[in-house]
Design goal:
- This protein is mainly α.
- It has one domain.
- The chain contains nine helices and four strands.
- Helix 6 packs antiparallel against helix 9.
- It is globular.
Length: 245
């Protein structure tokens, strides 16, 4: 990414986040009120550590969709389809990606971009660094609300190699037009609900749980479609092992 591309991308992030924030504010307020009313013992918004550009850890914000202390007994794990820890309201919020809206604040703060590889939790970043060659290369880019893996419907949390290939393709072939295209496809996917949400494989760990062990990522990563040598890694569907469920 060239210097002028970085400037334009940041400007687009600021304008896009502000516009989306205004347009989606009513839906976010309703979601927060309902979440608080249905579960008075837990905050409506939860925070979680994620690894951003250059390996810097930052805090993401999301609307709570799981029961409190979801990882109290299991430790850091990915959430799978039919996870009983997800509340009925949470399933609805996840379906329409409303739970991700607070991350627009992360975009405004400059910790995230609208488009980029999905940020992972420190626990899984360290695990994938050890298991997936070249995984740290995805950290050169600022993480995004949506990425190429989400648009390409790569939701299998086990396919770390394939997701990484998509991330690296995005990084190696970056252009402003690519961001525009992925943003358009993301909007279509969210409105028509035909691909899984970015973080649906992530579990909601409480802040105190994260202090004793490295935290989580919004699911498997947003990864880019492979080119060259990376194509073979992605096409084989090589799987990386995950923490015990």
């Amino acid at each position: 990414m060239t210097g002028w591309q970085a400037v334009v991308k940041r400007a687009a992030d600021l304008v896009g986040a502000l516009v989306l924030g205004v347009l989606t504010l009513p839906a976010l307020v309703i979601a927060l009120v309902l979440t608080k009313l249905l579960d008075r013992g837990a905050p409506a918004i939860y925070t979680q550590d994620r690894v951003g550009q250059g390996g810097q850890v930052f805090t993401v914000y999301k609307v709570r969709t799981m029961v409190p202390d979801a990882e109290r007994d299991s430790g850091p794990v990915f959430s799978m389809d039919g996870d009983t820890r997800v509340t009925p309201l949470g399933r609805w919020l996840r379906r329409f990606y409303i739970d991700e809206l607070p991350q627009l604040w992360n975009v405004l703060r400059g910790e995230m971009s609208l488009i980029g590889p999905r940020p992972e939790r420190p626990f899984f970043v360290e695990q994938f660094k050890a298991e997936v060659p070249g995984y740290e290369r995805r950290l050169v880019a600022k993480p995004g609300l949506s990425g190429m893996a989400q648009v390409r419907n790569v939701a299998d949390v086990h396919c770390a190699h394939k997701k990484l290939a998509y991330d690296l393709e995005y990084i190696d072939n970056y252009s402003l037009w690519l961001d525009v295209r992925l943003a358009f496809e993301t909007a279509c996917g969210a409105l028509l609900n035909y691909w899984p949400s970015a973080d649906k494989g992530q579990t909601e760990a409480e802040p105190d749980e994260q202090q004793g062990r490295p935290p989580e990522r919004p699911v498997a990563q947003a990864e880019d479609r492979p080119t060259g040598a990376r194509q073979s890694a992605a096409s084989t569907g090589t799987k990386a092992s995950l923490p015990p469920k």
